[in-house]
Amino acid sequence: MKTSQATRVPVVDQENKPLMPTTPARARKWIEKGKALPKRNNLGVFYVQLTQKPSDYKTQPVIAGVDRGKCFTGIAFQTRLATIVLFHACLPGFYKSKNLGKKNVKLDRQSVTAKMAKRAELRRTRRGQRINRNKPFKLRNHRQKRFNNRRKKKLPPSVLSNRQMELRILNEMALILPITEIRDEACGGDTKKNGLGISRVTVGQEWFREQASLIAPVIEINSYDTGKYRDYLGLVKDKTDKSKQTQETHANDAIALAATRFIRYRPFSRGNTHGHEWVGFINITPAPFIVITRPKLFRRKLHQENYTKGGLLKRQGGTVTPFGFRSGDYVETTFTNKKNIRGYVGGFTNTNKTKNIAVYDHNWERISQYEPKNLRLIQRSTKLCIFRADKRLPRPRKARGSVQLNFL
Are the CB atoms for 352 and 304 separated by under 8 Å? Predict the structure, then answer.
């Protein structure tokens, strides 16, 4: 069965109802003739919106594969004939320190875990300053217990932020794609019985599936089968460094999880022979590869910890600047060497001598500082940083005796 190797462009109708994706050539013709409008969603995915009634509303299966990790997650959207888009999500709960060469590597101070630890430390300091230790213990200014906070069943903030980022990607894509199923990898752990798991990956797994089931039915896939499907499809797995922002680390596993909807490895028995064989059909095509990160902002930090001259504590954190920009805004400047430089607004300097805005890349490494008059706003902050890192996928390996089954 011959199919096109081109990727697909998501399509929505006049009322923003998702339809089946189309080819880029057909999308360009629609735009040239005024039949569709070009748009991008908050994840940077290009799609078109029809300006007239579509010819049909029938859809084919669109599967989302989720390969979850501790610090990174790969998400792929796949149909039988094409790969639509791939995501590499850098989870904010457990950022690794940049100094990976030394011993005793700690978590990044801008991860959710480190922020919660620092916030608790500063809170204990402020609470201790309110206590008058010259009075008897019963008369001291202790905070009274307002509720029993040991009976709640909730996720740790770091794990919750990771699962919410994965759900954010699924929710944004569900607005432009008719997602049929979500295939989630089972990472182990007895989470259904008592909410515990064997690692931080499994914590929140059931909560994620409960929330994701509101988008589409969630199918659990055994993690031991992922490598089998990945090898059959001819996809490469990079196990040396999971932090690499390439599709070999997590996105290819997500494709393999989504492919379990269209191909199977099943036993057969014919006459005097028996064994196992691959059945079904799927086509892996080149697709946009997008890296998703979150701005590393100090949103709730009140001030710096060290005093300056005059016994003052400088302000630290917040998302508002005095120049009309907000932290996380996507901006552009052409001031340096007449080249277009794009990035995200971070910190700022506002003194009598200097007024600058710091611009960061998607990994939140500072590019440079620029004057506010030299910056142009492209998009307001969506609390996400987007980077396109496309790379062509290898063509799927043709299996012997593969057939297309009607029940798949």
Answer: no
Residue-number span of the structural domain to which 316 is assigned: 297-382
Q: Are residues 264 and 302 in the same domain?
A: no
Residues 240 and 252 in one domain: yes
14 plus 70 within the same structural domain:
yes
Give the pLDDT score at 306: 78
Across residues 231-237, what is the average pLDDT?
A: 91
44 is a domain residue: yes
Check whether residue 88 and residue 182 sit in a common domain. yes
Tell me, yes or no, whether 125 lies in a domain. Answer: no
Tokens of 371: 């004057």
Q: Characterize the bridge pairing of strands 376-379 and 366-370.
A: unpaired
pLDDT at 189 over 70: no
- What CATH number corresponds to the domain at position 342? 2.30.30.60
Distance CA 106, CA 370 (A): 32
Cβ-in-10-Å burial (0-12, 13-18, 19+) of 139 comes to exposed
| Helix 205-212 with 157-174: angle, nearest 10 deg | 20
Percentage of the chain modeled with pLDDT above 90: 47
For residue 224, tell me if it sits in a domain: yes
**Residues 256/183, Cβ–Cβ less than 8 Å:** no
- Answer yes or no: do 38 and 177 share one domain: yes
Nearest CA to 31 out of 49, 15, 13 is that of 49
**Based on the structure, what is the number of domains in the chain?**
2
CB-side neighbour CA atoms (13 Å) of 287: 30
**Are 348 and 280 within one domain?**
no
- Distance CA(377)–CA(324), nearest Å, equals 10
Q: Report the SS3 class of residue 31.
A: helix
Q: Which residue has the tokens 């004939």?
A: 81
Q: Under 8 Å CB-to-CB from 321, ≥6 apart: which residues?
A: 327, 345, 348, 350, 357
Reply yes or no on whether the pLDDT at 321 is more than 50: yes
Residue ranges with strand state E in 271-319: 273-280, 289-293
Residue 28 Cα to chain centre, angstroms? 28
For the record, the structure tokens of 319 come out as 């998302």
Query: What does the longest C-alpha to C-alpha distance in the chain come to?
Result: 93
pLDDT, tens digit, 9 for 90 and up, residues 125-145: 777 777 778 888 877 766 666
In a domain, 407, yes or no: no
Cα 253 to Cα 313: distance, rounded to the nearest angstrom = 48
| Same domain assignment for residues 167 and 76 | yes
Q: What is the pTM of this model?
A: 0.85
